[in-house]
Design brief:
The protein is 81% helix and 0% strand. By secondary structure, the protein is an all-alpha fold. It has three domains: 76 residues, 434 Repressor (Amino-terminal Domain) (Orthogonal Bundle); 83 residues; 91 residues, no CATH class. Helix 8 runs antiparallel to helix 9 and helix 10 packs antiparallel against helix 11.
Amino acid sequence: MENDLNTSMGALIRAARMERGMKQRELAECLGVTDKAVSKWENGGSCPDIALLIPLAETLGLEVTELLQGCRHQSAPDPEEIALRTLTYSQETSQRRRKNLRLWLFGLLSALLLLSAIVCWIVDAALNHDLTWSLLVCCSLALAWAVLLPLLTAQRRPILWSLAALAAAILPYLYIMGNLLSDPRVFRFGLPIAPAAMLYLLGIYAVVRLYRRRKWRAAGEILEMSAILEVYIDFIVYAYLGTEMIWAGPLTTIALSLFCFLADYILRHRKTET
């Protein structure tokens, strides 16, 4: 629907502009935009911002409703249809702004990460005449970029795609870090913990979506998962390093989760009574 509206509106803008003998540059100057923006409108590549509809219609001698319909009125427009088109157009332009903002943010963050990597390379090479610690930094920056990519560019469920990217990249990251540090324990130690941590993050995502309106229940579920993860990590540390298991942390977390469940029960019980 958006592409059809862009095409019909663009054709109407071009026809009205040519009827008035205006060039794209002249129309752009009247509206305070670039001639490239006008060209995109007329070619159906984009459509004007909703704030420009009134001045655009006045400049071209059109009605705003004609722009929204993409054609000249042959009869009186239906008010309900115009209201629906206006709402749809407003939503589409708002979504387009958010999408463009995410793309700009991703481009800016990508440039900053690349600049940080270059600075680290230069400083490392100048001080050590070789690339040493800068490789560790660049490896971490690459992981951050891989996680940010879907978070800022995915159209649907960006958090889920970002978690998927992290799950795919975390083990190769640990392997490379172990090789750079010449310490295989980094990968061996992280191998059993990384999948558990990813399941924990996915669990948080699922709980938050499932219990959007029950914050206390969601907090309780997350704390329970946290306690399980704490016990698991303590066990891994015990198995690798021989240290004692620490139960105070998980027990405290479980106690907090029970408090959250109790609060959720009390709130739901009050709602049923009222």
